[in-house]
Every structure is written in structure tokens, then in C-alpha cells.
Amino acid sequence: MKSALLRTGLIVAVLVVVNIVSAFVFFRVDLTEEKRYTLSTATRNLLEGLDDDVHVNVYLTGELPAGFKRLENAVRETLEEFQARAGKNVTYRFIDPDAITNTDAKNKLFDRLQQQGLLPTNVINNEGGKRVEKLIFPGALVSYKGKETAVLLLKGNKASSPQEQLNQSYEGVEFQLAAAIRKLTQPEGSRRRVGLVAHTNVPPSRFSDLLASVQENYDLFFVDMSKPGPISDLDLILVPKPDQPFSDDEVFKMDQFVVNGGRALFFVDGQRVDSVGAEGTFAQPLNLNLDNLFFRWGVRVNRDIVKDLRCASIPLNVGNLGDKPNIQLLPWRFYPIINNFGNSRNPIVRNLDLVWARFTSTLDTVRSPGIQKTPLLLTSPYTKILQAPAVVAYNEARQQPDPSTYDGGVRIIGCLMEGRFQSLFANRILPGDPRANGFKAEGVASRVMVCSDGDLVVNDVDYKRNAPLPLGYDRFTRTTFANKDFTLNAIDYLIDPEGVISARNRTVTLRPLDTIRLKSERTTWQVLNLLAPLILVGLVGVVWQFVRRRQYAR
Predict the structure, then answer these.
(1) Which residues of the chain have pLDDT under 70?
(2) How far apart are the first and last CA of the chain?
(3) Parallel, antiparallel, or unpaired: how do β-strands 139-144 and 54-58 relate?
(4) Distance separating alpha carbons of residues 28 and 15, to the nearest angstrom
(5) What pTM value is reported for the model?
(6) Sign of CA dihedral 66, 67, 71, 74
(7) Least CB-packed of 71, 474, 488, 545 within 10 Å?
């Protein structure tokens, strides 16, 4: 009897000690194979550094199909992890807009969410043999110190199956929420600095969406390349669609900026297309005086233009319907749609949606010691490469292409370079040269990305309202491509690959059930799931009684 009391007292004492220790020592154990509940280091640091309350209203809840319910659970689990790290500084609430009974209140909420950028998704479900349609908002609003930003939770490649797209959204939940919190909570003076090299005649309104998006996370400055002295006090330079040659002195400044650890992102063309008519115009070779610099870094922008069978459409008058023109959307091979990402595990392009290219050239990689090259944007295998000067005509869309002539294969149009870059001007700077002061032939490790399409970062304009359209928005098909996501991901990675962008590396493996076996063995598994727990409990009871009888029979 005394031994039983001693064991009971010892168990109670251990439980008390464990509870006391757990009040002061925090730990959680993630036993999943993919570590799906383990936050990235950057996200943990972000949450632990919060100085005020962050509140998240999630509108993805209620009666949802199984795939969306899984996404809702992923959001809930992620927010629980956020709360475990940040404590009382993170709060959240799930709101079902469809559960609001007051029609006026519901409509006001719908309007507010859409104004914030949360667009509804119409889902169709079969309930009891009936087709049921429901409008859901797969998104959230994050607020901090009176500021608010929208988070789109349904993200992924629209060319994938619905199940794959939902899984991609599942994988991106941490990044989407952490990026929103970072945007709202970055204190003044701690933001990274991005310099814009505006070496172009493109109107500023055509870059407005890109620049506004960059300014949400970074301090943006205009770089005056004519100003004497090096490029300094910047983390990255952004060079969008230059159309004028750089001088040797400007090339030298960019060279030394990268050699000294600065990062650079280029969107350049290999040819110039000034305007396009029905019968066409010539795409002329474009010399930006960057060939030698790019070659030293490990890439070459070719003087050509890509035609791709996987392409966007343009409106074209194909005839008349009575007394009115017959306008139809026809595929135009000069507008490739990019859905081929060289390294799909790189966080820049992981689970990225389609990217819209226009009048793009090709890239070749060349030998560059110490530089690791990662192709990220590639065309489809069905391409035709035209050497500039080449005719670009709208009427080309009328022609039925011969697939056998589109044998150019997969071509690179975006490449990431990482490593210790060597200066183009090594052994060329004499001691008496004013640029010799502080010159470095090889410096610290850095990162550069070159895309051979300047139009990737150029937004269209609504001329009726005289307002810029979102970057990547095709006004003819009303489709928004992932040009902006790609650019912002690239900036995030180039500046800090271990930052919040690293959360995009999360992988959640789909493990679908065998539907054929499920149908044929349905009854067997139902019976097993019903009876097995009862039998197990019964066996435990029998064993326990047997042990007790033997113990007390003595």
C-alpha cells in the first residue's frame, strides 16, 4: 500500500515540476516529415521583435469545400504558431462573410474587401446531389498601429490543377502573412535601400505600379549616373528597360558597385521595337554598352526576338459582321507566356503564377569563374528565334503557325548569378587614372539577375481614365500575370536570401488516397475504423484486469 502511495506521489510531483518548468521554458516539437509547423528563422525574428499588436482578420471560413477547408486549417495553424512566438502581440479572428444575415452589412463588407484588393472566388460544390455555388474571400486583412494591408491566401500557378494550386497556396501561407506583417511593422531607418537607374525614355507612369510596390518594403532612391563618384549607400540597383547606351564611366560605376557587394537587377532588351503596325515594323538591334559587363558576369543578351506558341492574345479585326468590324482575340507569338521556371525550388519562382513577356530576347550563359548561374525564366520548347532586324507585324496573328518551324527549343530569358564577381576593368585601370582610388578587381560575394525583356516591369495604362493599370495586367483578357510577384521576389532574394523570402521554400507533399481502392474497399475500412478502437479498448481492459489480479492475488 505504501509503495502504491509512493508511486502516486512521485507521479504527482513530476507533473507539478513539469508544469512549473513549462511556464518558464517554451518549446514545441514538429514531428511532421516536411516540418510544416516550423517557422523560418526570419519569420521567428520578425514576430519576436514586434513592439505592438498585430491583428489578422481571416475571411476564409464557414462551409467550404474540402480543399479550401484544408487551406483554412493551414492559415489557422500558421497563426497559432505566430501567436506562440509573438504572444499577445498577435491576435486573429476568422470571419465568415456569408454568415452575415443583414444584407446591407454584408454588401458593405463585400465592397470593403474588394476595395482592399481581396477579390472573391466563386466555388461550386455538390451537396446532397445538388449543385451549390458560393462566393468566398480567400484572404485576410492585417492591421498594425492604424495601418492595414490585404493578404491574398489563394496563390499559386493557375496552370496547375485546382488541387495542386490549393497545395501551393498552403505552402505559401507563412510567407504571405509574414510579408504583410513585415510591410506594416518595419521601423523608419531600418529599411533596405533600393536605387533606381532611370536610363530610359519610357514615361514614369509606365513604371508606377512597380515603384509603388517597391516603396512598400524599401526606401527608393533615384540614382544620378552623371554625378561624380561611386554608387554608394544602396543595397540594390534596379535598371528597368534602359533604351540609351551607358557610358564607360557609368558601366564602371555599376561594375564596382557589384564587386563591392552591391546587388543588381536588370530588365533589358536585346532589340528595340518602337511601334507596331498591321503590316509590321522592324525590330532593330539595341546596343546598351552592357555586353562586356554581362559577359564578365556570365551571361549574354542576344540581338534577337522570340516567337513562342505559348503566348498571349491581341485584339484584331478579322473582317466585318454586317456593317461592324469583327474584333477577335488571336494568339500573337511575340507575347510569350512563361510557365517554365528553371529551378522551381528557388524562392523567387517557387509556386509562381504565369509571367507575361513582350518582345523578349534570349539569354545565353557563358563561362565565368566563381559564378553560379541559375536560369529562372525559360520559354516553352516551341519557339522560333528571329535575328534582329526582324519584322514584327500585328497581321502575323492571322496566320496559322506551322509547329514544325517552331524548333528553337527552350531558351533562357532570366538568369540569376551568385558569387564573387570579377571586375570588367581589371588590369585596365592605370595608377594615374582618377578611378584607381578605391578600385577593386575582385570583391565580396554578391548577386545579380538579368532578364532579357524590359517590358516585364512595364505596366499598361487605362487611357480613358488616364490611370496606370497593375503590373502584369492584360486589359484584353482581363488577366493579371505574376510579373510583379516575380520582380518583388527577385528584389527580396537579391537583398536578403535568408530573410522573409526564405519562407517560400516550405514544401508540403500531397499524399492523395488511392481512389480506386477507396471505392472497392470502402466498407472494409469503415468497419475497421468503427470496431478497431472498441476492440483495442477491450484488450487494454482485459490486460489491466489480468495484471491487477496477479498483483493482488499474492
Answers:
(1) 1-8, 18-19, 21-37, 124-133, 278, 322, 508-515, 518, 552-554
(2) 13
(3) antiparallel
(4) 18
(5) 0.85
(6) positive
(7) 545
